[in-house]
Amino acid sequence: MTTETPVPVAKRVPTERIHHGDTVVDEYAWLAAKDDPETIAHLTAENAYTAARTAHLEALRAELFEETRRRTQETDLSVPTRKDGYWYYTRTVEGQQYGVHCRRAVRDGETAPPISADGAPLDGEEVLLDGNQLAEGHDFFSLGAFDVSPDGRWLAYSTDFAGDERFTLRVKDLTTGEVLADEVPNTFYGTAWSIDASTLFYVTVDEAWRPNRVWRHTVGTASGEDVVVHQEDDERFWVGVELTRSERFVVIDIHSKITSEVRVIPAANSTGEPAIIAPRRQGVEYSVEHHGHRFLILHNDGAEDFALAFTSADAPGDWTPLIEHTPGTRLESVDAFETHLVVSLRTNGLTGLRVLPVGGGDAYDIDFPEPIYSVGLDANPEYRTSEVRLRYTSLVTPDSVYDYDLVTRQMVLRKQKPVRPGPDGRPYDPADYEQHRDWALADDGTRVPISLVCRKGTPRDGSAPAVIYGYGSYEASMDPWFSIARLSLLDRGVIFAVAHIRGGGELGRRWYDQGKLLAKKNTFTDFVASARHLVKAGWTASDRLVARGASAGGLLMGAVANLAPDAFTGIVAQVPFVDALTSILDPSLPLTVTEWEEWGNPLDDPDVYAYMKSYTPYENVAPVDYPAILAVTSLNDTRVLYHEPAKWIARLRAVAPQGDYLLKTEMGAGHGGPSGRYDAWREEAFINAWILDRLGRA
């Protein structure tokens, strides 16, 4: 084999799958054997082939990486967040991959957060955890838990050095700097402290990677003595745990894709039995926030876009309405403070914040100036406060941190993410760019919003190249976000568009429902309609348009490649869920059973089986002229297994050999790709260089 020819595939006996009378032959099923030397050899050969095919872009990759590095203030400091007697913050240092987590005591009369303009350490700081020290000797590092106890003495933190999201939990004494002998392997995200800081609650997963148990650990004891507080046996449900902002209750959240149950334990009685707020009812979702004498309940019981109610904290029972259901206004969460409630919502495709004064006064929405933006509450750990921290951004506005006074309604900008001058030496100016909201018309007449950003003066005659991004699953919304790396595309004349397709949550719960289960194809046709609209409206042309998506958005990429291969000149599919039917048919795989309420259960339902088979990318590869495809995956990904894109690329080469297909596998990373910030920048530079090459702007 040479690196100038496509990678040959080892000859193995094909695997047969039979369901509902349908026999499917899978020639590449053997690639699922992660420990097979031939599998590793195949992935290594694919990487070598990709490296050879993209060698001519090496200088451009270096240029793009350098542009991101130059525009980024590498030594920087987050806006400190106050909790009791300390300011907590994270620093980054030039040349170092990971953040340094710190705190500094609040000084007499100090009300505004101390800010270091040049990112230098604050005077008197205490380093709690240095990610760079923890990562030494490891190719991958990820921090799962970072949870300081209510008394400020203990830090619970967890680490992952493989990318498989199996964390080891430890406890550090912040008064002495000693890491205790307490060590719990194979934990998941989520921890909660008891109010006296003697007990730590945490979560573990089952063999299918489903978070199914909440444990109670007594600080200073061996993990073998830990006690299961709740075990969830229904395979559709996940569990999570957290401490309320009031620090009165430990909350155990139990949820499937469409059903919820919440249990609480008084934080002052960590050995108490969890009390159920409301028993689970199929199709009813609710979440709980503690506020004084009541629990706030955000729910969809008879309220498609959710309503807000409350019940007694002493004896939970009937729900009393607080905010009635308003169709088209999706209530997403509620945050409780002593004198105010803040509701996060979305309407007309935009996020928003509504303030409800406690004990009198009219509710009001906070106004923001731009036509397209994204806003939400940031870290707000203190319950007794009249000021909240929020984060704001848009396609042209860098991430901005504000403190908002809930009484005076005054908003103070604490910090905007610095964007240093680019290659031309000019400071970043949002006025050099313009953002737009456009609408495509789907096949069934539905209007689909599209957000766009480009350099000012970019032509609208179809000559400009463009990238269109999409996701469209799990009610996840692709709200506008700012990206320093994206500036390198915009400055080369590329338009960047986000298609807010059904299956996401941009236009409320109905928008999500119309893009899941047996309506999933709306997600794909919406994206194609959005791409066609960009061409029709003069934004770009099909031979100048690259599509990009990741994870479930990678499924989208594979589906639209089959559905409309003529609509794009290139497709980037990151950690793509392209062999969805095979995965969803196997309940032993991570996440499969919990996913049935999103996609349907093809094991038991022949209609679901037939529907999924009709759109799953791997099942529908055809001898057509595909656009160039770059698939990027990670060997240790536990969410979308590496072999899905590996099989997909192999089948594409076999069935449509005239195409240009590349596979790049991170051999030591997980679902999120490389962990260090410089490694992540290099990965983005690799992808953007490939995109620019496809668009003729390399």
Q: Largest sheet, order of strands side by side?
A: 31-32-34-33-35-36-37-38
The CATH superfamily of the largest domain is identified as: Alpha/Beta hydrolase fold, catalytic domain
The count of domains is 3
The name CATH uses for the topology of the largest domain is Rossmann fold
How many strands in all? Answer: 38
Q: Strand portion, in percent?
A: 25-35%
The largest pleated sheet is described as: 8 strands, mixed
CATH architecture of the largest domain: 3-Layer(aba) Sandwich
The percent range for helix content is: 10-25%
Shape: globular
Structural class: alpha+beta
What's the alpha carbon Rg, rounded to whole Å? 25 Å
Number of helices: 12
What is the average of the pLDDT values?
96
Report the span from N to C terminus: 29 Å
CATH top level assignment of the largest domain: Alpha Beta
Assembly context of the chains: single chain
Low-confidence regions: none
Write the layout of secondary structure elements.
Layout: E1 15-19, E2 22-26, H1 37-53, H2 58-71, E3 76-77, E4 81-83, E5 86-92, E6 100-105, E7 126-130, H3 131-135, E8 142-148, E9 154-160, E10 167-173, E11 179-193, E12 199-205, E13 211-218, E14 227-231, E15 238-243, E16 249-255, E17 260-266, E18 275-278, E19 286-291, E20 294-299, E21 307-312, E22 320-323, E23 329-336, E24 340-347, E25 350-357, E26 364-365, E27 374-377, E28 387-393, E29 400-405, E30 411-416, E31 433-441, E32 447-455, E33 466-469, H4 484-490, E34 495-499, H5 509-513, H6 521-536, E35 545-550, H7 552-563, E36 570-574, H8 580-584, H9 592-599, H10 606-615, E37 628-634, H11 643-655, E38 661-666, H12 677-694
Helix pairs in contact: 2-12, 6-7
